[in-house]
Amino acid sequence: MLAAVALLAAVVAVQREQSVSSSVTLTLDEVEMEASRALGATRAIVVAQAANAELIASLTLVSQIHQSALLSEEPEAVAEVRTARERLTAASDALATALSQLDTVGEILPPSDPRNDPVERRLLGFVERGGVIVPRMVVLFGEANDRTLDLLEAHRLAAARANFLFEERARLEAVTSRVRRQVSALEDLASQVSAIAAEEVRGSLALVSDRAGGGAWTGYLIGAVTAVGAIGFAFWSIRRRGRDARGADLPPAG
């Protein structure tokens, strides 16, 4: 992605130097700004998707270690579960931070409408609220996990298994379901950002071509392809992160 952005910047710089028209230069500035804004938005979504994937991976790790301890009846494994929980807490904090930094996405989407917000705005709102909701759900899961661990340490194995199956497991699945819905919402947002930004860049570069004359057409076409390609690459990265998150399946209840 960085190479594509660098190439776009180079193309814009060359065309600016060749241009003798202030209107063309102004439009090239707009192209550069649009491409930069789009890439900033997609970068924020990539970070959020990575945080979603890490949270699900951390939840899965806690569950796997915990179930292994329950099945093997080893209270000594409690310390290992608590260590895995530390990673989960860090992942929850990182997710909250990532979801609080999606302002650049909102700058590209259609404006809000109090009577009927565009679907993209509703998706963004859902994802941003996850920055508060998911950490709370993780805390509730941790409390349930602590109760199971306390029972395990007390050698009350039947009660520990029951608490895992009927309380802890439900909270674990609730967090995982919420995060996976965020993954899908972010993919939809990325698709919209990619389409909107690519259209803005193409439109601005077409205007530049009209103002500059036919001789500069090839250079501007290269700029358009490069900008759209950079945005497309970022979108592909978002989809890959989404697949990573969905691919982290919880172990079956034992």
Give the helix/strand layout.
Layout: H1 2-18, H2 22-72, H3 78-99, H4 103-108, H5 119-153, H6 157-212, H7 217-247
Helix pairs in contact: 1-2, 1-7, 2-3, 2-6, 2-7, 3-5, 5-6, 6-7
Considering the chains and any ligands shown, give keywords for the structure.
254 residues, mainly alpha, disordered N terminus, disordered C terminus
What's a quick, concise take on this entry?
With 254 residues, the protein is mainly alpha-helical. The protein has seven helices and no strands.
Structural notes for this entry:
The protein has helices at residues 2-18, 22-72, 78-99, 103-108, 119-153, 157-212, 217-247. The protein has one domain (2-247). The two termini are 44 Å apart. The protein is mainly alpha-helical and 254 residues long. Helix 2 (22-72) runs antiparallel to helix 3 and helix 6 runs antiparallel to helix 7 (217-247). The protein is built from seven helices and no strands. It is 86% helix and 0% strand.
Q: Structural class of the helices, strands and pairings?
A: mainly alpha
β-strand number: 0
Shape: elongated
Number of helices: 7
Largest sheet: none
Order of helices and strands: HHHHHHH
Strand residues, percent: under 5%
